[in-house]
Amino acid sequence: MIIHFSTLITVLIDIAAWLMIHMGVSFIISRRLMDSFNPSGWLYRKCSWEKNGLIYVRLFKVKAWKKCLPDGAALFKNGFQKKQMRETNQSYIRAFIKETCRAEFTHWIVLLCGFLFFLWNLWWVGIIMIIYAAAANLPCIITQRYNRIRLQRLLK
Fold it and tell me: What is the pTM of this model?
């Protein structure tokens, strides 16, 4: 802990910080051009351990809970809705695939921001913040990867 505040102030700062991180990162990344998200890039490409998406179905049971996740696209003026496919043409599917990259990138950045909480929290609270960041973002990352694999298969 580098900075010390009272417990009440620290809790309020934590709540405000998470709100600003979630909204700020989402807003900034939503402004990036879609062409800057390459589905073939190292972060987004399908890995052999994903077993063509089966790891998400069998190990993580993604089909059972993915519909419960919120879609942050509704918060932004031109957000790309990902709850369901609205079209089946190739250009829409390609755009959807890039949007899964954008969403995954957003959630990775938010997750990494969890480490900032060590600056003003006790070490054990920092650990709790990392656990929160993982719990809030990993399901979204899993869903984006699972959907991207399915969409790429559909595109072929």
Answer: 0.90
